[in-house]
Amino acid sequence: MKDQEKKKFTIPHTYAIIFFIVILAMVATYLVPAGEYERELVNDKQVVIANSYTHIENSPVTPFGLFTAIPLGMQKGAQIIFYIFLVGGAFGIIRATGAIESGVNRLVTKMENHEKLLIPIIMIMFSILGFTTGMSEETIIFVPIGIAVARALGYDAIVGTAMVSTGAASGFIGGMMNPFTVGVAQGIAEIPLFSGFLFRSVVYVFVLSIAILYVTHYAKKVKADKRNSIIYDLEIIAKRDPNVGSEFAPFTKRHALALLTLFFGVGINMYGVFKWDWFLNELAASFIIVGFVAGLIGGLGINKTFDSFVEGMKMVAFGALIVGFARAILVVLESGVIIDSLIYYLASAISNLPATLNVLGMFVIQVIFNFFIPSGSGQAATTMPIMVPLADLLGIERQVAVLAFQYGDSISNSIIPTSAALMGYLAVAQIPYERWVKFIWKLIVIWLLVAAIALVVAVWVGVS
Fold first, then answer.
1. Which residues are bridge partners to 158 per DSSP?
2. What is the rounded distance in angstroms from the CA atom of residue 172 to the CA atom of residue 136?
3. What is Dmax (Cα atoms) for the chain?
4. What pTM does this model have?
5. Which residues contact 5 (CB under 8 A, 6 or more apart)?
6. What's the rounded Cα separation, in Å, for the pair 104 and 110?
7. CB contact at 8 A, 146 and 163
């Protein structure tokens, strides 16, 4: 009918996509010949032995086995799942103190008279939060502050949004201490947590510097002529409110002490990882201590501290449980004894290519997967069990496989419509998605090229 509105295509829920992949995995157990590689323990890591693949009797998974794979996946991913919950709870307490919001608000307010330094300092600050706490969706609450400041200084809402979002994204891409992506992926890859710190730091500096130059260049164009703004028509009708941070409480000594507790805790975690061989359990315990201390110092009291702890866990429930859901894919592939077969066929297809092309192939696969599984921890749980042994067979360091995942997962988050963080801050900023794409696409291309070059260099120098 003419009057009937056409149904718009909606992107399937992330869990629905993963469940569909679980179903495909079950179907594959009927189609792909079962097979196994022999493995040996090398430096405390289970490593695939090259040329040891053999076919065995098929063991297809039943439809009921498909559903039992979900609770089994939750069990197999329990350590990572609870780690994400506990760390999320700790950050929930810190957020509840208002220390982060008030601290950012105070810094932004003080920088109003220093236009040239404003963009770099704000982006550096949010990038630090990005590579230490994995800040993503949390950026949404800071977007109104950034926009208010940007407009007061003669810029537009895109500059205000970009200062916050691309700053955090740069740190997320760097990922040096990100517990939700690099931490999870390295745990699955059986390599030391947050190893490869120096190499990631160098790439992070390039990524952040390029982002700062990109946003600053656009800001200067808008400052010179408002008609250069991609959202010029929207800025004309937008209400200007120069009162920066009016919705946030003043920055107090309690806020300062809470932030100091967080930074001290992150420092202890870094030391613990590198000097005491800390792993997920120790890191989770440390974050819990930091959260509880910050809550009490921040004036939350016992009850509100634990209420905030629970709220923080609720906020990460989507990403935490998706790890177990994604692990169901691995359970089905293992039950059907075809995961080694898939590795064998992938390795056979690309074994004659140079290692640099192999790792770029891994990178492209991760970028594609990120559209469908934008959760970093969920994508790590889905892809790393295949990418790690594939890297072993191809003679690529596991650290490089983690880098391919990390960059493939993080860069496109700033442009794909399946990213909850992106759609959230665009909604708050009232920036149409297509306008944002017009602004950001060149930066995404540059970031992808930087990541590709970094991966080639990582192969050449043997980052481990």
1. none
2. 8
3. 72
4. 0.69
5. none
6. 10
7. yes
104 φ, ψ (degrees, to nearest 5)? -65, -45
CA 33/CA 30 separation, integer angstroms: 8
DSSP character string of 95-129: HHTTHHHHHHHHHHHHTTT-HHHHHHHHHHHHHHH
User: How far is the CA of 75 from the CAs of 7, 70, 324, in angstroms?
Assistant: 39, 9, 7
Q: Give CA–CA dist 61/448, Å, rounded.
A: 38
Tell me how many helices (H) and strands (E) the chain has: 20, 4
**197 CB-near residues (< 8 Å, 6+ apart):** 176
Q: Are 168 and 136 in contact (CB under 8 A)?
A: yes
Half-sphere exposure of 430 (CA within 13 A, CB side): 10
Cβ proximity of 329 and 379 under 8 Å = no
The torsion defined by the Cα of 253, 258, 259 and 260, in degrees rounded to 10, comes to 90
Token look-up 């809550």 returns 295
Q: Where does 3-91 show beta strands of DSSP type E?
A: 35-36, 39-42, 45-48, 54-55
Q: Which helix (H) or strand (E) holds 393?
A: helix 376-394
pLDDT tens digits for 89-127?
Answer: 888 898 889 887 787 777 767 766 666 788 898 899 889
Q: Which tokens go with 394? A: 């191809």
